[in-house]
Every structure is written in structure tokens, then in C-alpha cells.
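ping. complex inputs:
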Amino acid sequence: EVQLVESGGGFVQPGGSLRLSCAASGFTFSSYSMNWVRQAPGKGLEWVSYISTSGSTVYYADSVKGRFTISRDNAKNSLYLQMNSLRAEDTAVYYCARVRRAVNYYMDVWGKGTTVTVSS
Amino acid sequence: QSVLTQPPSVSGAPGQRVTISCTGSSSNIGAGYDVHWYQQLPGTAPKLLIYDNSNRPSGVPDRFSGSKSGTSASLAITGLQAEDEADYYCQSYDSSLSGSVFGGGTKLTVL
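pong. complex structure:
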């Protein structure tokens, strides 16, 4: 079964850091680009970051650029999101999603999400 | 303010047909980028519903269909069922932002 499982969410104070993980199974992880997408409470979906199959190409939404770092370990079938200088507005459920196609991609497999709460 | 504009809500009775619009601009849908649709049932993760404007992944009923024209796209749901009650999101690529963009989402209520 194709599956993505996020972990690492939690409660953190403003200015703090968290590292999210996404474990992939049931498919050849190294063959797919990956995304992080978040959803603030009661709000819509927001694309956060993209990483190519090898990790050589990464993109970030302006809202997280310079604070978040996406990475992957293909040997461990894992995707990561290092989040630094966290703000209250980063509070959200964070989903990892498998990307299909390099340009104008879509996301065909999603994890169940992990919740990040930034509050003092 | 989302880059892609969707109506906040739509509703319909069981068996009826509803449509959800997604309006973009010349840097995304109007530039020729494909539109994809996701369904998010209450309390669950999004699920791919339509890709490349009008294609359905395996397992998605043919009651769901998509189309695109100019700077807009639409999702149509026919034979509305109670289990269709969910939030629906469109997604595309924006060249000026160099990234993926979503619509604000539309809540479908089955009356």
C-alpha cells in the first residue's frame, strides 16, 4: 500500500524550531519529487515547499523562505522539513504529498498530516 | 487572499448537479497551466479528484468532471450524494510566484 506518514509536530514557542519527518512506503520514493503543504486552522491549503527526486532542486513559498529547509534521504525513504524562527502564523497541519510530473505538477498521494502549534 | 478564486460555498439537493468555479489569471491558468482538483472530507487529508483539468484518477466516480477555459476552470458534480459533502480545492502553477497555488476552497453542502 502506498503510504505517507508525517511525524514531528508539536507545540513550540515563537522563535523556536521543529523538524518534521515524512516516512514513505509502498513506492519507489527516490523516483518522486515531494511537497509539503500546510493548512491553518479553519483555512485553506497552502503550498510550502518542493524538492526534486535527488534533492538538488528546492522551492519555497515566500511565507517560509529563509526560515524553512526541505530535505530528503532516499536511502531512508524519508522527507524532512526543518522549521526555524517559527511564528504564530505557522500554526497548521502539515501534509507531505507525492508529486507527479516536474512542471505544473499535481499531488496524488497525501499523508494524514502532523499538527504544529506555535504559541507563547 | 488566494491566487486562485473559488466561491466560498455551494449547495445542492441529492441528485442535483453543482459546479465549482476556479478563476485565475494570465500567470497561472491563463498561461496554459493545468488545473487540478482535490476533495477534503471533514477531518481528513486532501484527496486528488481531478488532474490535468479533466482526468479522473482510478477510483474516482464519473459523477465528477472538470473543464478549463481561458483563465478559469470548473469542477462539476452530478447526481449529488450526501458523501460528497466536503471542501474542494483547485490547484495550478503560477509563473510569477514560481510555485504551486491553491484556490481558497469551496465548501459543498448537500441539502
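The beta strands of chain B are 9-12, 18-23, 36-40, 47-50, 64-69, 72-77, 86-94, 99-102, 106-110.
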